Amino acid sequence: MDTTPTYPTGYGQSKRRAQRAAFGIFRTLSLIIVFTLFAILGFIIYKGAGVISWEFLAEAPTDGMTDGGIFPAIVGTLLLMLGSAIVAFPIGIMSGVYMNEYASKSGWVVKFIRLMTNNLSGIPSIVFGLFGMALFVKYLGFGDSILAGSLTLGLLSLPLVIRTTEEALKDIPDSIREGSLALGATKLQTIWKVVLPMGMPRIMTGLILSLGRVSGETAPILFTCAAYFFPQLPTSIFDQCMALPYHLYVISTSGTDIEAQQPIAYGTALVLIAIVLVINLLAGWFRRYFEKRVKTKQ
Amino acid sequence: MGKIEAKEVHFHYGTFHALKGISMDITEHKVVAFIGPSGCGKSTFLRLFNRMNDLIPGTQLDGSIRIDGRDIYAPGTDVDDLRKNVGMVFQRPNPFPKSIFDNIAYGLRVNGIKDKEFIRQRVEESLRGAALWDEVKNKLNASAYALSGGQQQRLCIARAMAVSPSVLLMDEPASALDPISTAKVEELICELRKEVTIVIVTHNMQQASRVSDMTAFFYMGELVEYDETKTIFTNPHEEATQNYITGRFG
Q: Which residues in chain A show pLDDT less than 50?
């Protein structure tokens, strides 16, 4: 029996045509995304660049928020980022380490925690705000404050921090852990001196991206921290503070003269985007730096 | 008295009976090779000597294993201490993402040694012992990942030797290496036998005959034959051994 297949003629050409068409569609879709991003950025820059000046960045709002700058909101946002980092990073990293290194991977504890963190990341941020108000502002009596806002934002970023830590550690081959244990190192030494440093570049990336998310959140600080107008800088963690996203909302929806406030709104948006952009660039830079350090560290 | 004495060792992974009543004495300063087809239990048996199988959930061990007369599975055994004394080299080189120097110093540091001068000396000795010193002495601060696969494996041997173990377990240490690197590792094994008792798992029959004093042939979780390497390779008692070493199966 002859088993040599008879190939249809011209099929090669039609294969290549299908491939060209498919790649064409992929390329177009990618370009649309890039274009959208540039359109948004361009629009914000076009509308907002005009108001950016040293005064705008370094002064408080004046004249019923129709003039002056956004300095208190910038400081407030940076403080909230710092505060949420202090809350979420240690807890999140330790939980991630626990889940990947200590807990039995198929045990119900890990499954339960994973289920909870997944659900936690699906909760709308306004619900976090409500919870933060009930627990931190009212029950624990922190009042509307940077402390309450940081705790709420910290809770919000916890799932992301736990997840990235877990994923980063999961990718580290067991042979590295075995190599360390085989030298008489304890599990803790192995984690602290080998596993965590190896996972650090990716963990750092996750941490910084979570900061980016925190910087843009409005809902969680709405009832817990953000001040409508608080031109002086906060002096303690029990003070309220202004924050860029909330300021943007306030400026665009209320105030004494919404028309006159428009350029300020775009300026605020531009500063917020710039902060997030810088954070994302930092994330990339940190990752490369740590990767290099992990591989060549003395 | 043997350096390592295993008595009636049974080992289960879940319901799989991986080792079926193995008894074996290993004499000090000998090189013992474990041979046998894949899945015969030789690596499992090896990994019992430094309790590496503890890391796998759902396993069960019966019987006893003594090293220097002490039951290493007795309750209250310090596993970290055991592993310091029973070093291990793995199938694939697994250097840490640290410098060459720090890779060797790691074992000393995690065991509480802080004396910098001592560490420096020990690093040099260990690298010399692994015939790697001349190749790396000018780049001790370079990443271990910059080394070739063969160099990495010798680094791992140096790392294991740095903490002065009295037993060295090698799980197919040359299977991922090219022939020249393999030859270097084999030379090293012949050097190291002066200092430590070596147990090596290998798929390479020539390697077993070149480096070992004693050879153990495992098949389906049983120790079929254990004798002088010369005897195993020239005049084995069991037909299964004969068939395996002549390549009729496995």
A: 297-298
CA–CA separation, A245 and A256 (whole Å): 19
Instruction: Show Cβ contacts of residue B106 under 8 Å, excluding neighbours closer than 6 positions.
Output: A180, A183, A185, A193, A194, B96, B98, B159
B157 in a domain, yes or no? yes
The Cα–Cα gap between A22 and A6 comes to 27
- Dihedral of the alpha carbons of A132, A137, A140, A145, in degrees to the nearest 10: 110
pLDDT < 70 positions in chain B: 1, 249-250
From A180, which residue of chain B is nearest by alpha-carbon distance? B107
Residue B212 inside a domain? The answer is yes
Give pLDDT tens digits for B109-151.
999 999 999 999 999 999 998 889 999 999 999 999 999 999 9
Residue B250 lies in a domain: no
Q: How many CB pairs under 8 A join A and B?
A: 85
Q: Which residues of A touch B85 (CB under 8 A)?
A: 184
B111 interaction partners in chain A (CB closer than 8 Å): 183-185
Upper half-sphere CA count for residue A21 (Cβ side, 13 Å): 6
Q: Is the domain A64-296 a CATH 1.10.3720.10 member? A: yes
3-state secondary structure of A62: strand
Cβ-defined contact of B80 to A197 (cutoff 8 Å)? no
Domain assignment of residue B40, yes or no: yes
Which of A173, A183, A294 is nearest residue B163 as measured by Cβ atoms? Answer: A183
Q: Look up residue A270 and give its two tokens.
A: 């531009």
Q: Is B84 on the interface with A (CB under 8 A)?
A: yes
Question: Which pLDDT score, from 0 to 100, does residue A164 have?
Answer: 92
Task: Using DSSP bridges, classify how beta strands B59-67 and B70-71 pair: parallel, antiparallel or unpaired.
Answer: antiparallel
What Å distances lie between residue A179 and A175, A185, B52, B179, B192, CA to CA? 6, 9, 10, 24, 19
The encoded tokens of residue B103 equal 């890779």
Helix and strand numbers (H, E) in chain A are 12, 2
CATH number at residue B164: 3.40.50.300
pLDDT, one tens digit per residue, over A198-211 is 998 889 888 888 99
Neighboring chain B residues of A174 at a CB cutoff of 8 Å? 55
Nearest CA in chain B to A290: B97
Question: What is the rounded radius of gyration, in angstroms, for the C-alpha atoms of chain A?
Answer: 25
**B29 CB near a chain A CB, below 8 Å?**
no
Q: How many domains does chain B have?
A: 1
